[in-house]
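Bit of a strange request maybe. I'm writing a small parser for structure token strings and I need a real example to test against, not something I typed by hand. Could someone generate the tokens for this chain?
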Amino acid sequence: MNAKQKMRHILDTIADMFPDAECELVHSNPFELTIAVLLSAQCTDATVNKVTATLFQKYKSPQDYLSVPLEELEGDIRRIGLFRSKASNIQKLCRILMDKYDGEVPASHKQLTELPGVGRKTANVVMSVAFGVPAIAVDTHVERVSKRLGIAKPDDSVLKVEETLMRRIPKEEWSDTHHRLIFFGRYHCKAQSPQCPICPLLDVCKEGKQRMKPAARTKNSKSKTKIANEG
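Reply from user aminoacidic:
Good idea to test on real output. This should exercise your parser:
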């Protein structure tokens, strides 16, 4: 199996496993999505959704976030990691949206990355999910899975992983693959307990095969001990 065939095998397999994978951050418009992704840095989507369930009822527009003291906004997102810096970035972001974009989130990757608290990953998610522009956002799950499956090298930077995925995956599949890789990493190829014994991609995963060797040696050792005892 060459590199192109391996990539196709991976894409088809995760598509079968997670055909309906999509962004799990609850939102109703590009502005809410931008705030949710900003909050999700070093935090789980589940926790973000719990916070935004009430946050998005209280704050509907950039102006709403600017109408309260910073301390009040900090209190509203206190359950989120790094809540102080995120609250500050939200208000700075909202001020720019009001001053430069008539309160609307810009549909430009460059303009998005110029907003406080919005890095390349956040911009990619917003462009893909909110505006339908093909993109691959590399979060911790996408990075881990890409390296475990040998798509990217172990010491590759996040940007290098993104560039590799963009080069090796058909552009029309970027957005779907982004979500499927997240689901694969979040629910199957987990950081601490990957499900290697039942993984349909074990055949192309060197790390998975290495993980399985100790289990195989233990099993063989027990079998030999049992035979010896019976003898």
